[in-house]
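Hi again,

Forgot to attach this to my earlier email, sorry! This is the prediction with fe (iii) ion bound. I've pasted everything inline since the attachment limit keeps bouncing my files.
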Amino acid sequence: MPAADFPGTYGASAHNVRGDYRDMRPDYTVVQDYGTYAEDDQDRWRRLYARQMRLVAERACPEFLKVVGTLGYESGVPRFDEVNGRLGRATGWQVVAVPGLLPEQTFFGHLAERRFPVTVWLRDESEFDYIVEPDIFHDFFGHVPLLFDPVFADYMQAYGRGGLKADGLHALEYLARLYWYTVEFGLVRTGAGLRIYGAGILSSPGEVAYAISSPAPHRIGFGIERVMRTRYKIDTFQQTYFVIEDFGQLFRETAPDFTPVYAAIAGQESFPADTVLPQDKLFAPVEDSR
Ligand code: PHE
Ligand code: FE
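Structure tokens for the complex follow:
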């Protein structure tokens, strides 16, 4: 499967695609064969989880923190069936096991049906601190807890439907940026200051503190066109994060038909990832107590 088929967005990068795509169903789903996780995988999962839980406490958004510790993740690699029982009762979402990155339309189709594709394999020990593509830890730890939030859950489904509807290369590029700057790298303003809801940050050991406390990146108030026109980096910490007020804002501002938005920005140039515009609303970093 050529890497060029993949957008490098619904996960991470467009280098050689990893994963075993031989035994999948037509919708790219596979069966989780729990016996394939060796004891050292289980141990690595538990260490990844313990480290990340310490980092996200007081930095992740409350909707995430409310759920992440209740899923049994401390005991080892999660079982899809077990998580699905609880997730289905909460929001009607399900997780489905996949070999790795998916073609865009396949990915959109799953989201539109309230199915979140979760990579079935766990990173190697050599990737303990950094991994380029999504693995089972990134997906279960970073993405799944927020699927328990009703408003965020509806946003994810709307995104999938929007992807199916959008045709033409330009729209897909804009939609990919929206996903990147919200689902993967979004920040949210709370009464206690900036917090993280993006899965790419939440599952990263280095970026959690950086995203809300480093003076280096820009933190800019969310706007649809602003986000859609902004390029992003896939192999370094982000130079810009976009800040929402709450998930309600995200849902409402993405609800209108994007067709005129795509048309309006089609002729305009894109902004480099580190751009600040005069009309941007900038947020200060939060002090890091630890
Ligand atoms: N409202 C968008 C459209 O008309 C669909 C969408 C919703 C896309 C939410 C992304 C996120 O295309
Ligand atoms: Fe992801």
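The pocket of fe (iii) ion (ligand 2) is lined by residues 11, 134, 138, 143, 184, 199-200 (CB under 6 Å). The two ends are 44 Å apart (CA to CA).

That should be everything now.

G.
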